[in-house]
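Give me structure tokens for this 231-residue protein.
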Amino acid sequence: MNENFRILVVDDEQKVLNVIEAYLIKEGFEVLTSMDGEDALNIFKNEPIHLIILDLMLPKMSGEEVCTKIRATSSVPIIMLTAKIQEDNKIDGLSIGADDYVTKPFSNRELVSRVKAIIRRTYRDNSPLAELLIINDGDLEINIEKMVVKKQGLPITLTSNEFKILIALLTNPGQVFSREQLVNKAFGTDYDGFDRTVDTHIKNIRYKIEGNPKNPRYIISIYGMGYKFQG
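Here you go.
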């Protein structure tokens, strides 16, 4: 499954880069590396990249800034690396567009497992749905195959995780999902994340697709139960 998947690894420690690169190449991935934020962003703009492993503490441009700039134009999966361990830091990373979060020191085998899981979830062909979904007379348009979402004709950018949650909800309209059920539906049972991050993803999706995120018309909270899609 790993042939032709290209991963960009960004870290300011050469030793860390070398080890991660070796593990990924062993698994059949093609790997590009960078040691600063500006260079990483230039590589991303000029090379086809399927996943990014991104350290937060970088010279020239921080990992958070790199992530934010990439998210302005792309839904490419991003795994953040950091020595920060508090849950608030993880939520902050997810809120700006990260798909997963790994704290240092970490197991390289675990990191590779997460890479493979995200690649599998993001690029598998698992949707028999219509290619284009049009909702509320074109207020929302979702091209499932191309992972493109438009709001009133204008493109908006969702992370791969946000896109999967949106698809899970809107293809089961009216059905209420608990956080755990939504994680399983969107990402599969092999997902290693924690279900409370669903709240952060939902908040981000609402901000992007709702006219009034505080009074949503599409993704509705059901107190004590979870979320449902209506529209």
